[in-house]
Amino acid sequence: MNYKQLFSTIPEKRPVIIAGPCSAESEEQVLTTAKALAEQGIKIFRAGIWKPRTKPNSFEGVGAKGLAWLSQVKAATGMKVATEAAMPKHVEEALRHSIDLLWIGARTTTNPFAMQEIAEALRGVDIPVLVKNPVIPDLDLWTGGLERLQQAGISRLGVIHRGFSVYGNKLYRNRPHWQLPVELRRRMPDLLFFCDPSHIGGQRNLIAPIAQQAMDMNFDGLMIEAHCCPDKALSDKKQQLTPQELQTVVQQLVIRDTAEINGLSLFRNRIDEIDNRILELLANRMEISKEIGEYKKAHNLSILQSARYKELVERMRTNAQNLGLDADFVQVLAQLIHEQSSREQMKVMNSD
Ligand code: PEP
Ligand code: MN
């Protein structure tokens, strides 16, 4: 068997798709979604049973009873089934119910104690395991978790790139930092590489372009959240597709297989990511301008304070030079940003 093949029954053709709801919610929701996905040729079904929620009092998954629903999916559709394990107890229960594939969630990969305990629970078991990136962009934490599993004898091992947490205004729910999976692949070329555009984008309309970026970067597969009624989902409702929408996304993917395009794609993805960050920073900056507008309004201060403006331009010119940027270009940019900032302040001050 090819080392990279997840299951001998599933062709290695790119992209391998893992699809299914964020969470298993009811027997009906699981089976309806699974049957619709199976009809579209999806071979691996995902559903979270134990949900690591950031905040308390959110839906935390149906627990072990959902494993029986996954067994029903296997019997009814022939699909392989996958769920998330965050603790040794989850591993044991999943294995007892013949779950075919386990993934480790981003919050769990962040914790070496948890990874070691999971690795121990998996020692000597032949099951494919996919490790999501940790929530912070720390490559060693990611490889450390993978090495723990390798040392426990897991050989069908892969990763899921699902982006990294950031604070403040953001275009994506989780920032991709494409260089990290690329560097990981350089270091550990035998792993299977999946991308999870649902958790990177955080909203439906971003899933197709992110999935395409991942294909252009030669990822082996995609994990995409799909739900029979996304608007009623108990978790991650904004980022789940209907099975029909998922089919459209998959059909529209362009799979290019040449090394040159992949190299260029990395540069383009890095540029796009930086452009996104410039936009995020501008949005953060404009928000502060509005707060300044509120402050000036409350304290009867004027909008234009020319000493401050001169100082700002001078500082930008000096910093630009220190960074090897053209100072005149940066001055024009600073002027544009400043003008827009003043307009934002003005809007606030003129409102009642
Ligand atoms: C999930 O796949 O539903 C999940 C909880 O993902 P992550 O660990 O990437 O947040
Ligand atoms: Mn989810």
Mean pLDDT over the residues: 94
Bound molecules: phosphoenolpyruvate, manganese (II) ion
Largest sheet: 8 strands, parallel, barrel
Give the topology string: H per helix, E per strand: EHEHEHEHHEHEHEHHEHHHH
Termini gap: 71 Å
Strand portion, in percent?
5-15%
Outline the low-pLDDT stretches.
none
Q: What order do the strands of the largest sheet run in, or round the barrel if closed?
A: 1-2-3-4-5-6-7-8
- Quantity of strands, as a count: 8
**In percent, how helical is the residue content?**
40-55%
Give me the secondary-structure category: alpha/beta
Number of H/I helices: 13
Task: Round the Cα radius of gyration to an integer and report it.
Answer: 24 Å
Query: How would the global form be characterised?
Result: elongated
SSE layout and pairings?
Elements: E1 16-20, H1 27-39, E2 44-46, H2 65-77, E3 80-84, H3 88-96, E4 101-104, H4 106-109, H5 112-122, E5 129-132, H6 139-151, E6 157-161, H7 179-187, E7 192-195, H8 197-201, H9 204-216, E8 221-225, H10 243-252, H11 259-298, H12 306-322, H13 327-350
Parallel strand pairs: 1-2, 1-8, 2-3, 3-4, 4-5, 5-6, 6-7, 7-8
Bound molecules: phosphoenolpyruvate and manganese (II) ion (MN).
Residues 22, 48, 52, 105-107, 132, 162, 199 line the site of phosphoenolpyruvate (PEP).
